[in-house]
Amino acid sequence: MAASDDTESKVSVTQNSLCHNDGYDKKCIFCKIVSKEIDTELLHNDEELSCFRDIKPGAPHHYLVVPTRHVGNCKSLRKEHVPLVEKMVEMGKTMLQKNGITDLDDIRLGFHRPPFCSVTHLHLHVMAPASQMGLMSRIFYRLDSYWFITAEQLIQQLNSQVETN
């Protein structure tokens, strides 16, 4: 019985580091958007992922794909979160295609690295066409920068981690 209790407490600690008890952080604006406490059009919403437009778009099409349950920023992720990030990428591409974007080579998908993310709820920036991003957006969402990591780079980084038990 003690071993079982120990396992349960480890699971609880792990979950709480990424996700609050019920997957909702009452101080998180994205949790409020996903739970429809804030009047924002949800382009997609299911048990796993939600998508909505960025309030300050950096490109003609700028969406945010977030886990429906609260998950910390990209630095809190581990190797076991690769499938989540991959699903977020697929959702982003699907949303672009649903909105008439056919050139998936002219897109930018990525995450701001802490402390440069304004909301600690994990969110993928999905922008297109990248060629039409303005000067400030090119800086804020610059490839190979200290403050922004592409989804592909994050997945590679997570896959290179040694799994912890």
UniProtKB/TrEMBL annotation:
Annotated catalysed reactions: adenosine 5'-phosphoramidate + H2O = NH4(+) + AMP
Record-annotated HIT domain positions: 29-138
GO molecular function: hydrolase activity; nucleotide binding
Cited PROSITE patterns: HIT_2
Motif segment (Histidine triad motif): 121-125
Entry's family note: Belongs to the HINT family.
Record-given protein name: Adenosine 5'-monophosphoramidase HINT3
Origin species: Anguilla anguilla
